[in-house]
Amino acid sequence: MDSDTKSGFDNEVDSKESAFYLDAAKYWEQVPPTVDGMLGGLSSISDIDLKGSQRFLNSIYQLVECPGKERALDGGAGIGRITQGFLMKNFPVVDLVEQDRHFLEEGKKSLKPTNHRGQFFNIGLQKFTPENCVYDIMWVQWVLGHLTDEDLISFLRRCKLGLKPRGLIVLKENLTSSGEVEMDNTDSSVTRPHALVVELIKKAGLRIIKEQKQQRFPSDLYERKKKRNTATANLKHS
């Protein structure tokens, strides 16, 4: 078989992956560009989430080899809730990456009256390639479930190139406690178990240096959100 020719199985896989991304894009196109929309009707947890993230970020800067504080990336930024909520309080420059155009436009609008400095990238993480060696922190939250395993590994590998020498990637994600991957057909996303996330991180050539569970979320969050534990991992070159 010619090396450039795909088998029927490969074409079927590509088709399924395309549908996975297209279905997610269609879902988010119908979601209002509000905090409530970004959090699936759970805007009440936004403040708790941001405070927990700030505490985790503070702990990063207690590390011996901590990153700088010049530039951050908000991956899967939506309307800029995380950028405005706490990243801008820690970094003078914050870039936003978001594939949904109407979310990004709302983010630009809400950040315009502020002292925000940074770029806006209208592209999905599965296609995003950061500039080399520019970020101290790359913060990626509640979006990796919209990437296939292969694209997640590739994304993290590209992120490595975007980090400064002491830069870190922070992943804040929902995890299943069942040990299984759980599919959400509503928004075309998956929630992975901790073991699989760790495996994918290692395949990307990264190692975890710190993990912490988000505290003070409602006890019935799983029933309301259909997702479970939230953990934050700090990643650096292996």
Textual characterization of the structure:
The chain is an alpha/beta fold and 238 residues long. Helices cover 37% and strands 24% of the residues. The protein contains eight helices and nine strands. Strands 1, 2, 3, 4, 5, 6, 7, 8 and 9 form a nine-stranded mixed β-sheet that branches. Helix 3 packs across helix 4. The longest helix has 22 residues, at 8-29. It is globular and about 40 Å long. It starts with 7 loop residues before the first helix and ends with a strand. Residues 1-10 and 222-232 have low confidence and may be disordered. Belongs to the methyltransferase superfamily. NTM1 family. It holds the Pfam family Methyltransf_PK. This is Alpha N-terminal protein methyltransferase 1. InterPro entries: MeTrfase_NTM1, SAM-dependent_MTases_sf. Keywords: Methyltransferase, S-adenosyl-L-methionine, Transferase.
Question: Major beta sheet, specifics?
Answer: 9 strands, mixed
Radius of gyration: 18 Å
Helical percent range? 25-40%
Q: Round the mean pLDDT to the nearest integer and report it.
A: 88
Principal-axis shape: globular
Protein name: Alpha N-terminal protein methyltransferase 1
Pfam families: Methyltransf_PK
EC number: 2.1.1.244
InterPro entries: MeTrfase_NTM1, SAM-dependent_MTases_sf
Compose a concise summary of this entry.
The protein has 238 residues and is of the alpha/beta class. It is built from eight helices and nine strands. The chain has helices at 8-29, 35-38, 46-60, 81-87, 101-111, 149-162, 194-203, 221-225, and strands at residues 71-75, 93-97, 120-121, 135-141, 163-176, 182-184, 189-193, 206-213, 229-237.
